[in-house]
Design brief:
about 20% helix, about 800 residues, 47 strands, 5 domains, globular, Rossmann fold, single chain, eight-stranded mixed β-sheet
Length: about 800
C-alpha cells in the first residue's frame, strides 16, 4: 500500500526542498541611494533634509517600514520609521528632516543605519538591501559660514564666490535651485545646513504656507535672510512682507562714491539704481549715504531680516570689481549685529549640555526619597518587639513554642510595610517631570528647550507625542563600540527608541523600559503662546525704580531681575499683575546677564523643596550659557503650568512641570554729571588673533583663562543706548595686566594700528577718544612673551570715566 503513496511522498519532499528557494526568488530585492543636506552639505548638530531613494528590482512588492537610525547627539540615537510600499520594478523616494546631523563614520565604524522590516517594525522581519547602508554627508563646523542663494541665475551673485569673512575661515555657497528641485523643508530644522539665506528677486510667496512658516521659524531661531531690492518685493517676499525693515518708494540713482565710502576701496565706477526708502518700526540702519538708506536690518525672534535698497544681482553693480568687498562688508556687519544681540554660534551643543545641566536633576523624583528617621524607628521598633517584648509575652503565656511562626510573620509584615511606604507613590500611576526654559522673542513668541522624564509603574513601551515645531529626542546611549568593532548597541538604536512622524507632529516610542525605571525625552520647541514681561525700569545714582508687568496668561513665581551673575528678587506675579521695583544697586546700571557656574552640593536633595532648587539651579546654568540674552540683563520667572505640549499616550500619569520664562530687556539709565562705567557693565569678547577661537574660562578668579595661542584680541563694547547719549569721554583705567606673561597694546581707531602700552600692572590713559570706535568698541591685543603657549592667565579689565554733556 505504501507504493501507492510513494509518488505523493516524493512530491511533498520536492516541494519542501524547493519552496524556500521559490519564495526567495519571489522576495523583494531593494537597492538604496541616499542624499542629505543642501547640495550634500550639513552642519554638526543642526538639522538637515535627508532623501532616500528605494528601488525594488525583485518580483514581489515590499510592504513594510523603512527604519533609519539617526544620531541625536554624541551619546544617543533613535530610529526613525517610515511606512513604504514599493511594488516590483518600482522606485519610491522618502524625504524627511533629521533634527540633528552627525557624522556616522567619524570613527571609521561604517555603522549600518538603514533597515527594512517587511510587515512593519513592531512584528515584521528584517530584510537585507543593497546600495547605501548609512547616511553620508559632508559635515561642517561652526567656523564655516554657509550661504544659500535664491535666484533665477546664480551667476548674478558671482561676487560671492571665494568669499572670506572676518570670523570665518571657510565660506560655502549653495544654489537653492538644488534644494527646490528636491523638496523645500517644511519645518525650521530643515534649514539647518545654512547660516544666511540670500533672496535675489525670487518669489518666496510661491512657496507653500507651510514652507514659508518653516522659513520664518528658521529665522526666529537665529537664522538670517537678506532681501535685495525688487520691483515687486512687497508681494514676492510673501510671509516676510510684515518683517521687512524698509518701505520702498520711488527709484533714484546714486553715484559710485556711496559704495566707495562704505567699502573704503575704489572698485566702483558707475551709478547704481536704488529705491528711496523709509525705516520701519524697530528696524536699524546698517549703512546710509546722505538721505539714502542702502541697507537695514530688523530682528525677528533671535534672527534677523536684512534688506537692501539696491538689487543684489542687477548690473552694473553685480559686475563691479568692488562688489566682492561690498558683500563682505554687508555680511560682516550682519554677523557683528547678531553677536552684539547675543546670538553666538554654539561651539558647545545645547542638547549635550542640557543632559547634564537640566536632565540629571529632572530624573530625580520626590518619591525616591524615603524618610530615614521613620525607617530607623520601624526597624528599632521591630527589634524591640521581636527580642524583649515577644520573649516576655510568650514566656508569660508559656507559648514560647509559637515563636517559630510569629517571628517570620512579624518580619514579613514589617517588610511589606517598608516596601509599601517606600513605593506608595510609585505603584498607583507613572510620574512625569518636565523642566524647560523658554525665551521671549522680540515678536512675543516663546521658544526654548525642555526635558521630560517618566518614572514608570510598569515595564514595557511608552509613547510620547508632540506637535510640529516641537522636536523629540531621547537619552539612549549610542555606543561607539570597542577596539574589536562596533557594539550591537551602536547598530540598533531603533531597538531602544523609535520616532514616528506625520502631518500633525511626532511620536517617540521608548521600547522595553523597565519596571520602576526612569526614561527621558528632550527637545526644542516654538510655542504660539503670546506674552511678555512689560518692563519699565530706570537706574539713577545706583537706585533702580519702576514697574514690571506680567503679560502672560499664566501666573509666574519667584520673578527676578538677572543682572550680572546675581538675581534681584521681585516676587510672584499673577496674569496681568504689576509690581513696583525700588532697589539699591552696587553699580551705576544693571549688568548684562552672566553665566552661572554649575555648582551642586555633594549631598543629594533631602526633600521636595531642595529638589526644586536643584532643578532651578540647572535651569540657571543652562540659560546662562545658551539662552541668547547675554548682552543685556534679563527678567526671569517660573511657571508650574505645563507649557510644552509633550504628552504621554495611553498611560495614566501625574505631572509636575517647572518652566523658566526669560526675557532680555534694557533699562533706562540716567547718569549724573560725572560717571564711571565698570568692566562688568560692558560686553567683552576675547578671541585668538589667528584662529578666532575663544580661550577656555577656568573659573576662579572670574577672568582667569587658559590661553593656548600667541596673541588674542579683547573687544570691549559699550551698550548702544549709552553711546546715543553723547557723553564727553575722559580717561580709561586698564588693570589686572599680568606683565610678566604678556604685553598689551590698544587699537588706535584713526590709524588702525595697535599702540604698545606701558608694561605695568595698572595704568591710566588720559584720552579715550582716539581708541573708541563710533560703535562704542575698544580693542586690546594681548601678546604672550617668549612665545609661551598653554598657560593660565588673567585677562585685562578696563574702567571708563566720563561726564554728561551740558
Amino acid at each position: 500500500m505504501w507504493r501507492k503513496h510513494l509518488s505523493t511522498i516524493v512530491i511533498l519532499i520536492v516541494i519542501c526542498l524547493f519552496f524556500p528557494a521559490v519564495h526567495a526568488m519571489a522576495a523583494p530585492e531593494l537597492k538604496v541611494k541616499v542624499s542629505a543636506g543642501f547640495d550634500g552639505k550639513a552642519k554638526y548638530g543642526k538639522g538637515a533634509p535627508i532623501t532616500i531613494e528605494i528601488e525594488n528590482s525583485g518580483t514581489s512588492p515590499f510592504n513594510g517600514d523603512l527604519v533609519v537610525d539617526t544620531q541625536q547627539s554624541y551619546e544617543s540615537g533613535v530610529g526613525e520609521v517610515f511606512p513604504v510600499n514599493v511594488g516590483a520594478g518600482e522606485t519610491k523616494t522618502v524625504t524627511f528632516i533629521n533634527s540633528k546631523m552627525y557624522d556616522f563614520n567619524m570613527y571609521g565604524m561604517n555603522t549600518k543605519s538603514i533597515f527594512f522590516y517587511e510587515g512593519g517594525w513592531k512584528k515584521g522581519k528584517e530584510i537585507a538591501h543593497k546600495g547605501s547602508q548609512q547616511i553620508t554627508v559632508a559635515m561642517y563646523h561652526e567656523d564655516t559660514k554657509i550661504l544659500t542663494a535664491f535666484t533665477d541665475n546664480i551667476d548674478r551673485l558671482s561676487a560671492l564666490k571665494g568669499m572670506r569673512l572676518t570670523n570665518y575661515p571657510n565660506v560655502q555657497m549653495i544654489d537653492a535651485s538644488k534644494i527646490t528641485s528636491v523638496k523645500l523643508p517644511d519645518v525650521s530644522a530643515g534649514w539647518g545646513p545654512t547660516d544666511v539665506i540670500i533672496v535675489d528677486e525670487y518669489p518666496i510667496a510661491d512657496m507653500s504656507a507651510v514652507e514659508q512658516d518653516a522659513l520664518i521659524n528658521y529665522v526666529r531661531s537665529g537664522g538670517v535672510i537678506i532681501f535685495g531690492n525688487s520691483d515687486h518685493l512687497a508681494v514676492e517676499s510673501g510671509a516676510f512682507a510684515e518683517f521687512l525693515p524698509l518701505t520702498l518708494t520711488d527709484k533714484t540713482t546714486i553715484g559710485p562714491e556711496a559704495f566707495k565710502n562704505w567699502t573704503e576701496i575704489d572698485g566702483f565706477d558707475n551709478d547704481v539704481t536704488i529705491s528711496q526708502s523709509t525705516l520701519n518700526t524697530d528696524a536699524k540702519v546698517i549703512y546710509s549715504h546722505g538721505p539714502n538708506i542702502l541697507a537695514a536690518s530688523k530682528s525677528l525672534g533671535k534672527g534677523m531680516v536684512v534688506q537692501t535698497a539696491f538689487s543684489l544681482g542687477d548690473e552694473p553693480l553685480s559686475k563691479m570689481h568692488g562688489t566682492h568687498t561690498l558683500w563682505k562688508k554687508l555680511l560682516d556687519a550682519v554677523d557683528q549685529s547678531m553677536m552684539a544681540g547675543g546670538i553666538m554660534p554654539y561651539y558647545n551643543d545645547p542638547m549635550e549640555s542640557m543632559r547634564w545641566s537640566i536632565g540629571n536633576s529632572n530624573e530625580l523624583f520626590p518619591s525616591f526619597k524615603v524618610s530615614a528617621p521613620l525607617l530607623f524607628g520601624v526597624i528599632l521598633l521591630y527589634i524591640i518587639i521581636i527580642i524583649p517584648v515577644l520573649y516576655l509575652v510568650l514566656k508569660r503565656k508559656d507559648k514560647r513554642e509559637h515563636a517559630w511562626w510569629i517571628i517570620p510573620a512579624i518580619s514579613i509584615a514589617v517588610s511589606v510595610f517598608i516596601f509599601a511606604y517606600g513605593a506608595r507613590d510609585r505603584i498607583g500611576q507613572a510620574q512625569l517631570q518636565q523642566t524647560s526654559v523658554l525665551d521671549v522673542g522680540t515678536d512675543g513668541t516663546l521658544s526654548g528647550y525642555f526635558v521630560e522624564s517618566i518614572l514608570t509603574n510598569k515595564a514595557g513601551d511608552f509613547v510620547f507625542t508632540a506637535p510640529r515645531e516641537t522636536t523629540l529626542s531621547t537619552y539612549t546611549p549610542f555606543s561607539m563600540g570597542s577596539i574589536f568593532g562596533p557594539s550591537q548597541m551602536s547598530t540598533n538604536a531603533h531597538k531602544r527608541a523609535i520616532l514616528e512622524r506625520d502631518a500633525s507632529g511626532s511620536k517617540m516610542n521608548l521600547r522595553d523600559i523597565g519596571y520602576w525605571d526612569v526614561a527621558t525625552v528632550y527637545g526644542q520647541t516654538t510655542l504660539d503662546i503670546k506674552g511678555n514681561y512689560d518692563v519699565n525700569l530706570t537706574v539713577k545714582d545706583k537706585q533702580l525704580t519702576g514697574e514690571i508687568t506680567n503679560n502672560f496668561p499664566f501666573p509666574l513665581k519667584d520673578v527676578a531681575i538677572w543682572s550680572g551673575n546675581k538675581q534681584i528678587a521681585i516676587g510672584d506675579l499673577g496674569p496681568g499683575e504689576t509690581v513696583k521695583v525700588n532697589e539699591t544697586l552696587t553699580t551705576s546700571s544693571l549688568l548684562p546677564k552672566r553665566s552661572v557656574s554649575q555648582v551642586y552640593s555633594s549631598q543629594m536633595p533631602l526633600n521636595t523643596d531642595e529638589l526644586m532648587e536643584w532643578r532651578k539651579r540647572g535651569l540657571m546654568v543652562f540659560s546662562g550659557d545658551f539662552i541668547n540674552s547675554q548682552s543685556k540683563p534679563a527678567i526671569i520667572g517660573y511657571a508650574d503650568t505645563q507649557l510644552i505640549p509633550v504628552n504621554l499616550e495611553e498611560v495614566k500619569a501625574s505631572t509636575d512641570a517647572l518652566t523658566m520664562i526669560t526675557q532680555a530687556f534694557t533699562a533706562n539709565i540716567e547718569f549724573s554729571d560725572k560717571f564711571t562705567i565698570d568692566s562688568e557693565m560692558m560686553e567683552m569678547k576675547l578671541t585668538s588673533e589667528k584662529y578666532n577661537a575663544e580661550p577656555y574660562l577656568t573659573g576662579y578668579p572670574a577672568n582667569m583663562y587658559y590661553f593656548d595661542e600667541e596673541s588674542y584680541i579683547q573687544t570691549w563694547k559699550i551698550p548702544d543706548e549709552w553711546m546715543e547719549k553723547g557723553f564727553n569721554w575722559q580717561s580709561m583705567d586698564i588693570s589686572k595686566i599680568q606683565r610678566q606673561l604678556y604685553n598689551v597694546s590698544i587699537l588706535n581707531q584713526t590709524t588702525q594700528e595697535f599702540e604698545q602700552l606701558e608694561s605695568v600692572r595698572k595704568l591710566t590713559i588720559d584720552s579715550i577718544v582716539p581708541y573708541l570706535s563710533k560703535d562704542g568698541e575698544l580693542k586690546l591685543r594681548i601678546e604672550f612673551t617668549n612665545g609661551q603657549r598653554g598657560i593660565e592667565a588673567q585677562a585685562p579689565e578696563i574702567k571708563l570715566h566720563g561726564e554728561v554733556k551740558k
